[in-house]
Write a structure and sequence with these properties.
By secondary structure, this protein is mainly β. Helix content is 3%, strand content 53%. The protein has two domains: 91 residues, Immunoglobulin-like (Sandwich), CATH 2.60.40; 85 residues, no CATH class. The strands form three sheets. The chain has an eight-stranded antiparallel beta sheet. The chain has a three-stranded antiparallel beta sheet with strand order 4-7-6, with no helix packed on it. Strands 10-9-11 form a three-stranded antiparallel beta sheet, with no helix packed on it. A hairpin with a 2-residue loop joins strand 13 and strand 14. The longest helix is centred in the C-terminal third of the chain and has 6 residues.
């Protein structure tokens, strides 16, 4: 049996959304996509939620977006936004592949409730108690609909849960229903939940 070392238990939750919005420059031809990433604590509670925004910018001009963000990071160029409440205004050149920025959300509530429990050799333990232990570890992730949010999101958005395990620390990994990808010394497990399946 392998000994386990303490590693941060972070599960990434991805909400996929495609939104078509009108912008002042070339209004009919511009589109926007968003991908929402939620970092979870070891118990499934939300640590941080970030939105990667991609705006089509076929021509230079003013582009307006909306979001309630505590931080905004331009990951395409050097432009700085003008922020007025939830209105975000960008003066942008034409980017061949569009413009990307990341917004860190303020007080985000997910359309799903997630809880994560751990067992070591059949006994329920806290994630922190797994450090330095060896034996059979079971991680159970439970997702339920969050009735306190709009049903629109639960019924129209897919959710992907991803957990990465270091294969130097974990062996004999099985994950029913997950897609498994080995990248170097890591095994990334991904579960996809389609709209309406919770």
């Amino acid at each position: 049996m392998k000994k386990l070392k303490q590693t941060p238990a972070v599960v990434i939750l991805i909400l996929l959304a495609v939104l078509l919005l009108s912008f002042p420059a070339a209004a009919e031809e511009n589109g926007k996509t968003e991908t929402v990433y939620a970092e979870l604590n070891s118990d499934g509670s939300v640590e941080k939620v970030m939105v990667v925004n991609h705006i089509q910018t076929p021509q230079a001009g003013t582009y307006i977006d909306y979001g309630n963000y505590s931080a905004i990071d331009n990951i395409t160029g050097e432009e700085k936004p003008i922020v007025d409440g939830e209105k975000i205004t960008w003066e942008l050149p034409a980017y061949d592949n569009g413009f990307y920025y990341i917004g860190t959300m303020t007080d985000a509530v997910l359309p799903w409730n997630l809880s994560i429990t751990y067992r070591l050799n059949g006994t329920i333990v806290d994630a922190e108690d797994l450090a330095g232990q060896s034996g059979e570890v079971m991680i159970h992730i439970k997702a339920t609909a969050n009735a306190d949010t709009s049903a629109y999101f639960r019924e129209n958005f897919a959710m992907q849960l991803t957990q990465t395990l270091n294969t130097d620390l974990c062996s004999d990994i099985t994950a029913t229903g997950a897609t498994s990808v080995i990248t170097g010394k890591n095994n990334s497990l991904a579960y996809t939940i389609l709209p309406g399946n919770l």
